[in-house]
TrEMBL record:
Pathway: Amino-acid biosynthesis; L-arginine biosynthesis; L-arginine from L-ornithine and carbamoyl phosphate: step 1/3. Residues 3-147 form the Aspartate/ornithine carbamoyltransferase carbamoyl-P binding domain. Its EC number is 2.1.3.3. The lineage of its organism: Bacteria, Pseudomonadati, Pseudomonadota, Alphaproteobacteria, Rhodobacterales. HAMAP family: OTCase (MF_01109). One of its GO terms (cellular component) is cytoplasm. It comes from Celeribacter baekdonensis B30. This is Ornithine carbamoyltransferase. Reversibly catalyzes the transfer of the carbamoyl group from carbamoyl phosphate (CP) to the N(epsilon) atom of ornithine (ORN) to produce L-citrulline. It comes from the Bacteria. GO terms for molecular function: amino acid binding; ornithine carbamoyltransferase activity. It holds the Pfam family OTCace_N. It catalyses: carbamoyl phosphate + L-ornithine = L-citrulline + phosphate + H(+). It is found in: Cytoplasm.
Length: 308
């Protein structure tokens, strides 16, 4: 069994295998009703717990549908309703859940919660987002890029905005999938330097550029995300908006990227803040393919977790 905790802690071979498997099983399902079972049922007779300590639309629904298509059953648990939210330790929760279910997906605040869950669970644990990373999202994004524009290896990805959890997983992916990554954002919101150094050590070119138009030149993919993440205090909203406004993705900024560049956003978006409507709904935007691919990528991740 495997835990899927982060992109930089999963081997590059396994990551490539997961993407290939996602492409194949997505293809095999073309034209099937959404509720139809897959031809192969790797989660038959398996129970999967989906724990959410933060809100979610895509992660919740795509994991739920994916487990069912693979023949398993799910339960969606709100962290606040569990004893976990009332003082029971993560270790005890992990050991108890492992007696009932065959896999645990958790969306939480502190990364330590995820790591402790994985340490004490005797079943696979999947990272459904922490304050620090969002690996499932980026696996879906790689799948989406490759479906539209071929191998991501050697391409230039430009992140505009906050150096947040989604940005961190992109930097991890740069190292593992061999693409270049430019961060365009204000210094106080830079991504973690340790992540950048790790990706550089794997041979990827990782740059920090303060001018958004300069950063986007030659981009094959432009990505942004909310300026205020779920774990950020609302009191920081105004300051962040002021810091990040120069990095809003609009048509003018997109015109500096390569003509066939794609635009991605993990969603939910704040239209008019980090990105304009005409980019969100424009011809380079693949935001809804990204959302769909959460389903296909995560099914491949779950299969890898149970070793099927
Ligand atoms: N992109 C993403 O993880 O969306 P949700 O917060 O809706 O799950
Ligand atoms: N950075 C965002 C991603 C939401 C899917 C957050 O953590 O709120």
């Amino acid at each position: 069994m495997n835990h899927f905790l982060d992109i930089h802690t999963t081997s590059a071979d396994d990551l490539h295998q997961i993407i290939a498997s996602a492409k194949a099983t997505k293809q095999a399902r073309l034209g099937q009703p959404k509720g139809a079972l897959d031809a192969e049922l790797p989660l038959k007779d398996k129970m999967v717990a989906l724990i959410f300590e933060k809100p979610s639309t895509r992660t919740r629904v795509s994991f739920d549908v994916g487990v069912r298509q693979m023949g398993g059953q799910t339960m969606v648990l709100s962290g606040a309703d569990m004893q976990l939210g009332h003082g029971e330790t993560i270790a005890d929760t992990a050991r108890v859940l492992s007696r009932y279910v065959d896999m645990i997906m958790i969306r939480t605040f502190e990364e330590q919660t995820l790591l402790e869950m994985a340490e004490y669970a005797t079943v696979p644990v999947i990272n459904g987002l922490t304050n620090r990373t969002h690996p499932c999202q980026i696996m879906a994004d790689i799948l989406t890029f490759e479906e539209h524009n071929g191998p991501i290896k050697g391409k230039k990805v430009v992140w505009c905005g906050d150096g947040n959890n989604v940005c961190a997983s992109f930097i991890h992916a740069a190292g593992q999938f061999g693409f270049d990554f430019t961060f365009a954002g204000p210094e106080p919101l830079d991504p973690e330097m340790g992540f950048i150094e790790e990706a550089r050590a794997k041979g990827s070119k990782i740059e920090i550029v303060r001018d958004a138009e300069e950063a986007v030149k030659g981009a094959d993919l432009v990505v942004t995300d909310t300026w205020v993440s779920m774990h950020d205090p609302q009191s920081a909203r105004e300051r962040r908006h002021n810091q990040l406004r120069p990095y809003r993705v609009d048509r003018k900024l997109m015109s500096h990227a390569n003509p066939d560049a794609l635009f991605m956003h993990c969603l939910p978006a704040h239209r008019g803040d980090e990105v304009t409507n005409n980019v969100m709904d424009g011809p380079q935007s693949v935001i809804f393919d990204e959302a769909e691919n959460r389903l296909h990528a995560q099914k491949a991740i779950m299969r890898w977790c149970v070793g099927v």
